[in-house]
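seq as requested:
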Amino acid sequence: MLDIDPLFGVMKDFEELLSIAHDMGLKVLIDQVWNHTSQLHPWFVESASSRTNPKSDWYVWHDPRDDGSPPNNWLSAFMGRSAWQWHLGRRQYYLANFLPCQPELNWHNPAGAGGRARSGPLLAGQGVDGFRIDAVNFFVEDPALRE
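struct tokens:
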């Protein structure tokens, strides 16, 4: 899914920005965050809807410990508290390394996270000159979820 956040306009506005920048001899770099989406993103909404839907493993989900607490002691990079967020509907925790509204994509599943990474070549085809990929150290986590 390649689109512009309405806050910033529409794709036509972006194409015009690229054209003007290139006419001025400027290069356009795009800041990309590929390790998480919004909890409002259609992928997450579907993933959260059940444990058996086609996108159920597109995000990092895990069952609670026997006492109901998060799967391990991992902390959020921004909040200084657990990186795990309880989802009542799915009855599992999802990983959110930054903000609770930013669930982590499961890069161990290339069908899910791979879809996210495909936006780079699409943007390059639009005339983008380069990318800054943010938070790459959060792309994958220990699959054993060690403390």
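The radius of gyration is 18 Å.
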